[in-house]
Amino acid sequence: MLELAFAAVAVVFALAVAAV
Fold first, then answer.
1. What does the pLDDT look like over 1-20, one tens digit per residue?
2. What is the pLDDT of residue 5?
3. Alpha-carbon distance values, 7 to 1, 20 (Å)
4. According to the lineage, what is the superkingdom (predicted)?
5. Residue 3 and residue 13: Cα distance in Å, rounded?
6. Spatial separation of the C-alpha atoms in residues 1 and 18, rounded to whole Å
7. Strand locations in 1-20, DSSP E?
8. 15, exposed or middle or buried, with CB in 10 Å at 0-12, 13-18, 19+?
9. 11: buried, middle or exposed (CB in 10 Å: 19+, 13-18, 0-12)?
């Protein structure tokens, strides 16, 4: 489950980078 949470954080971070 931790890897799923880490993947979710990575996706959110990627979206934040794309928004810049």
1. 899 999 999 999 999 999 99
2. 98
3. 10, 20
4. Bacteria
5. 15
6. 26
7. none
8. exposed
9. exposed
Query: Does the global pTM surpass 0.85?
Result: no
Distance CA 15, CA 4 (A): 17
DSSP string, the chain: -HHHHHHHHHHHHHHHHHH-
Rounded CA separation 20/6 (Å)? 21
The Cα 4–Cα 19 span in angstroms is 23
Q: Is the dihedral of CA 15, 16, 19, 20 positive or negative?
A: negative
